[in-house]
Amino acid sequence: MKGLMMQQPLLVSTLLTHAERHHGEREIVSKRVEGDIHRYRYRDLAQRARRMANALAGLGVLSGDRVATLAWNGYRHMELYYAVSGSGAVLHTLNPRLHLDQIVYMIEHAEDRILFFDVDLLPVVQAIAPRLTKPMVYVAMTDRTHVPPCDLPEPVLCYEDLIDACDDDFEWPDLDENDASSLCYTSGTTGNPKGVLYSHRSTVLHTFATALPDALSCSAWDTILPVVPMFHVNAWGLPYVACMVGAKLVFPGPWLKGESLYELIESEGVTMSAGVPTVWQGLLAYVNDHQHSFSSMRRTVIGGAPCPPAMIAEFQEVHCVDVLHAWGMTELSPLGTVCSLKPCQISMPPDERVAIQARQGRAVFGIDMKIVGDDGQEMPWDNASTGELMVRGQWVVDSYFGSAEAPVHRDGWFPTGDIAKIDSDGFMQITDRAKDVIKSGGEWISSIAIENVASQHPDVASAVCIGARHRKWDERPLLLIVKKPGSAVVGDELLAFFEGKVARWARPDAVVFIDSVPLGATGKVLKNRLRDQFQDYFLTA
Ligand code: AMP
Questions:
Q1: Which of 9, 78, 242, 538 has its Cα between 20 and 30 A from that of 230?
Q2: Crossing angle of helices 75-86/12-23, nearest 10°?
């Protein structure tokens, strides 16, 4: 017997119509590329998104066409999130920090027809344009007075001219909820990037799950500042969540330095933010150097890379900002787990609580996870057994876009390439990315565990541990350290700091001081580059 309930497709456009109807007065504040602050409301967003949808139709964009953006976090980018996906086309967000070869590859592979860009990114657009083999329509995301002289093969359209030329009389089409809504390429360090094609259904379900109290806990009371870029897995879904719950949104544009972020957080009363650990390092350094405090921020979501326990403790104990450590992947839209505590853990002593929060946390409803050994057999949830993390769920990739390869899953589970353990309460902890595990004499050493200890040392600004080749043990851990300014700490002091904290055989053998840590296009540490640089350290030292 079938249920007798309405069949309403889950569509991205419904998030916007909900926000317009129920939260029309709520503000969206953007620090613009032009340098000023722009403010408007959800009702303006909805109206301008409809005008842009008409403009896209006028440009001949059809259902399923790919429309690319090369843009920072801002209100015009948000309009495109809804105008493009809502009208049935596919929003392809490009990361301007990637190597030009990769950007060209992605545009060609996706067969993008239109490229919207922030004007400060014109040099990137000019560098890639001559290499594109298909015609492209270029749109500068600004008004007529700010369109710079452009050296491009085709004339450049102006975003505000397109909006001005269209009215807002537009009905969002009744799409199939399984139609594609947006496209994001993985930022893999080897091989060509792979496209993950999200559907309206997967996006809306992901939005529900992300907003839940034990996930990111978002509501109409929040003012959300997504530092995570809108080109990094849809800013972890926050542009959708904000519409669903009616939160005030604050966009930082390209200004992601500590001082700029802090000023915006304070002036706009931000309650919640989200980003990768390296961004928070900059913010914390600025706040500490200037002896500032946070007057409104209550919590921050940290993910994309392991969050060191020292950072969690500093946010919580010094600044009274709760940390929500989250794990996800482009292939998961991206949210998989969030480390929100259970009631029995709240009264734990702070250091025990922080040790739990340094784990990547519990699966949100909709994501099923398990760990498997080399033989593919499931491993127990005993907080000791480690294996490859496998996931499945409604917003997990099934196959990559435009790939002739079979579905990417194994027996219905997506192999994440992360090595993890899970405790009996279901708290998952990533012990390493499979390729970062240090294999020493047949034993596996977690580089993250070593980095977590090192980053608790008061003289350490950043710590990275890699496996360097070793004649006897195959690989041994080498610790690369960026010191805090003015520190005179020496390597032996740092090695002694591991006494009693990590098993003797798993401690790093040596410390090398480096000036800075190389970061990739999404702010994650480029361990590959450090491995290339230091892989012979123990052979030649
Ligand atoms: P991306 O698809 O570029 O977002 O990268 C996904 C990968 O980032 C995951 O497979 C993990 O290796 C890593 N990652 C994401 N979040 C975390 C986290 N909280 N802790 C450790 N690694 C993470």
A1: 9
A2: 130
